[in-house]
Structure formats: structure tokens, C-alpha cells
Design a protein that fits this description.
The protein is α/β, with parallel strands linked by helices. The chain has two domains: 53-300, Aspartate Aminotransferase, domain 2 (3-Layer(aba) Sandwich), CATH 3.40.640; 303-405, Aspartate Aminotransferase, domain 1 (Alpha-Beta Complex). The protein contains 13 helices and 14 strands. It has helices at residues 11-17, 53-59, 69-86, 100-111, 125-136, 154-164, 187-193, 242-248, 262-268, 285-301, 303-323, 351-362, 389-405; strands at residues 42-43, 92-97, 117-122, 140-145, 168-172, 174-175, 180-181, 197-201, 220-222, 235-240, 340-344, 364-365, 367-368, 377-381. Strands 2-10-9-8-5-3-4 form a seven-stranded mixed beta sheet, sandwiched between helices. The protein has a three-stranded antiparallel beta sheet with strand order 11-14-13, with helices on one face. Strands 1-12 form a two-stranded parallel sheet. Strand 13 (367-368) and strand 14 (377-381) form a beta hairpin. Helix 2 packs antiparallel against helix 10 (285-301) and helix 11 packs parallel to helix 13. Bound molecules: pyridoxal-5'-phosphate (PLP).
Length: 411
Amino acid sequence: MLLLNDRYLNAPVLQRLDRSMSSVTVPPPACLLRPLEAPLRYLFGPGPSNVPPRVLAAGGRPIIGHLHPEMYGIMNDIKKGIQYAFQTENKMTISMSGSGHAAMECAVFNAVEPGESVLVAVNGIWGERVAEIAERMGANVHKMVKAPGGYFTNKEIEQAVEKHKPVLFFLTHGESSAGLCHPMDGIGDICRKHNCLFLVDTVASLGAAPIYMDKQSIDILYTGSQKALNAPPGTAPISFNERACQKMFNRKTKPVSYLFDMTHLSNYWGCDGKPARAYHHTGPVSGFFALRESLAILAETGLEESWRKHKEVSGYLQRGLEDLGLKLFIPERDLRLPSVTTIAIPEGYDWREMLVYIMKNHQMEMTGGLGPSIGMVMRIGLMGYNCEKTNADMALQALADALKNCKKTRG
Ligand SMILES: Cc1ncc(COP(=O)(O)O)c(C=O)c1O
């Protein structure tokens, strides 16, 4: 009888054979009796990106306690790495235990109280997302809206700030759904003049395009681990300057989230000046090991070199795409995001079919648009470890192959 074959006689199967001897009524799932399968893929989409072996190895180190002194040392290193990557001296600099969304929510939940006015620049999905987060916690949300790929002039921003008098203005530096890298200069000064905090999302741009938190008067800045930083998804650096701390630590109400309350997180990360760091939650120890290693790579490479390389490789990719007859979605060269390049869907092709073809035949991830840019763009991300001309060549070959072999459906 098949079940008596030795191969199958492991403990869970024996348990299933005789239910009467077992107290469990839900059997062990058959899928979990098979080994984990995670194929090797070229992650050339907007993230996550492939993780270098050195960072994977760091994440695979034996676990230590989240409150051990060695762990505090590692968290202090991470803090220094984030200060470098953000170009800030803010002492209130930590990593969230969670993805980029955790940092978005932490920023909004702590800086804003219900009923306060928030102004959000929406030119892709990330503004939409922050507006929704702020609405959910009871803020009075005002949106400045442009089509994906559009950007806001400083004059437009100042007019909207004057009109809505927000306590917080949100802008995405690297709009990954549209492939836009938004100009940053002067906006922090406008916010300061109007007594409003300036919150910036650099999840898709940190390490790939210049950002200077202190020099550009950014009050709250966050990023994610899985893009140009090349760590696994699940941690998200964030920093608050003095102005932001003044606002968030003098609230009348408690933030809606206990997990994301900066009063607790600042103590957990040793930023509040108190002698003891208390238990708040169990941080992702392996994720922090990996994040520390990715920040170490950035420190060794140097920010300026990392920015230069992303610019060089994205420029090379863009020229190759134009040579294939493809149209870049962002016409202004200087506004193109160096980590995620967007192309207009080629006339007559079904973008989904092309992406499936590329995945099936080249084991390569590229993606379509996201939120308002769905059906408008295809996205190619070459960030951090993946930011190499050889990878750009592979992506171009895969696209050329798809253009040749996917049937034209229209036009
Ligand atoms: C610009 C931007 N902001 C925020 C996020 C959300 O990050 P996460 O998916 O890690 O929560 C992303 C993810 O793609 C992003 O590109």
C-alpha cells in the first residue's frame, strides 16, 4: 500500500493514519510537508530588488535577543547608517519594524492629530496612500493632484500651503508608480515659512538619487529596506528633526497606534536620552542584521558614488530602450527616477502578455503600473546590487524578445 512506503512514514502522516489516537482534527497541511521552493529570479521591477549574498548572510546569522547589549550596539550602528544615508544629524532616527507603509503610518500618526489639516501632493499612488492613511486617522486632508508623472512647482506648493494651512505637507521624492524623481529644493523653506512640517517619502529613491534631509529642511524622512538599499523587505528607516519632535511630543492626544507610537519607539531605539531602554515590541532581529549590512555597503560605496552609478546605468538603460523604439514615460531627462524607469506601453501590445512572456522566458520580473499608472506604463527597476550595465543589457534583450514574440493586439 502506497502509504506504507517508508518515504511517507513520518510523524505527521502517522498522526493522520490514526485520528482516533490524536487530539487534532485539522490535519497537517500537505503543502508544508514539501520543502520550501523559492526560485531564483531577476528582480528588475520596482522592488524588492535582489539581495547581495553578503546581506543575505548577515540576515542568516544566529539570532540574539532583541534587548541584548549587542543588539543595542547593532541598532546604534543602523542609526548612524541611516543618518549618513539621509544626510542628517537628527538624533530621532530609527528603523521601523515593518515595511515602507509602517514608516508612512508612523510619520502621519505621530505628527498629526485628528482634525488637523494635512496637504498631500498626489502624482501617483504614494500620495493617494498617504492621503488615505491621514483620512483614516481623522485628519482634514487636502490633495493637490496631478496625473502620474506630473510634478508640482514651488509656487503651486506655496499657494496650496497658504490656502489650506496644513500642519504637514507630504511629497514623494521617488514616485515609483510613475518613475518621477521630484525636485526638492526650496520646498522645505516654504513649509518652514508657513509653520508646516515637510514629510518626504524616499522609499524608491534613497541611495539612487541625491537627498539631503538637513540641507533641504525636510522635517520627517522615511525609506524602505528593499529597494536601492538591497536588504530584504520588512524594515523601514525613518528620521524626525527637532521641529517634528516638538510637534509630536507635545500632542494633546495619543497616536492611534501603540506599535508606532514614537514615545515608545524613541526609547526602544535609545533616542530619548533615558538611561534604560525598555521592552516595547520584539524587533525583527534578522531584518536588522541585514539592514545593518546593507547600510554598511552604502557607507563603503559612498552615497555620491551610489548616486552616480544609478544615474549612469539608468541613462544607459534609457538609451537602449529608445533604440528599441520604446517611449520613455517621463519626457524630462532630469526628472526621471534613476532606480525605476518607466516606459509608455508600446502601441499595439498587451503589456500583461509582455510581462508574463518576460517572466516565463527570462525568469525576469518587470511590472506594469500601480494605482493611477496602471495601463499607462511598464516599469524596470535596476537598483543597488542590480544596478549594472550587464543587467540593463539583459533587460533590453528580454524586452526586445517580447516585442518580437508577443502579438500585436491593436494598432
Ligand atoms: C515610493 C514608495 N513609497 C512607499 C512604498 C511602500 O513600501 P512597502 O511596500 O515597503 O510598504 C513603496 C513601495 O513600492 C514606494 O515605492
